[in-house]
Amino acid sequence: MEYLVVALMCIVFLQTRFMELRRSTILLGVQSAFIAAACLVIGIAHGGGLHGFLPGILTILVKVIFIPFAILKVVRGLKDEREIISDINVNYSTGVAALALAMSYMIIDRLLPGFEGRDILATAMFMIMTGLALIVMRARAIMQMIGMITMENGIYLLGLIMTEGLPIIIELGVFLDVLIAVVILVILTSRLRLNFSTTDTNVMQKLKG
Which structural domain range is residue 51 located in? Predict the structure, then answer.
């Protein structure tokens, strides 16, 4: 499990460095694959069975396969597949991620001293805060979508480790909510691209009356 935690941290840090939409989307799929692996590890540790393996299987189907495929389909229709930010902004987002990681460990050590799953909890909080930073600091709707899913992955990992496995009905509800949200965002992003020839959300300011 320690290797999964380190891998997730590295992937989230890389997400703050990438400006290419295609690479960022592929990296999101890799991140979700590690979340699925964590689900399977936790499931096996608690006896396996349908309840143990269902979260991992759903994560693979929804977040590793369907969501990256849907986002890549939108990216293929763009003329420019790079984020509209400068290198300075990239450094800022990486700095925010480093600060989020330090804050995550400080919060866990203060609230849950000596907790066995300290690194996993800190990683989950780190993903939540970094995902929020990507939503706020990036201009492309696709990058903001990637930030949202990163934040949701962190929330899901946090709930998974705190409850040692969520009830099946809650897991199904979470994946259904994420699936519906991504479908709506993909449709809106496609309309944004068709109407403004870009997915830069700053152009929405033109709609102000």
Answer: 2-78+88-201
Q: How confident is the model at residue 31 (pLDDT cuts 50, 70, 90)?
A: very high
**Mean per-residue pLDDT for 154-168?**
75
Q: What are phi and psi of 15, to 5 degrees?
A: -60, -30
Distance CA 76, CA 105 (A): 39
Burial of 145 (0-12, 13-18, 19+ CB in 10 A): buried
For residues 36 and 59, the answer to whether their CB atoms sit within 8 Å is yes
In a domain, 209, yes or no: no
Distance between CA 85 and CA 90 in Å, rounded?
7
Q: Distance between CA atoms of 93 and 28, rounded to whole angstroms? A: 17
Average pLDDT, rounded, for the chain: 78
Domain annotation covers residue 137:
yes
Return the SS3 of 47. Answer: coil
DSSP-derived secondary structure letter, 43: H
State yes or no: pLDDT of 94 exceeds 70: yes
Within a domain: 208? no
Number of domains within the chain: 1
**DSSP structure string for 156-184:** HHHHHHHHTS--HHHHHHHHHHHHHHHHH
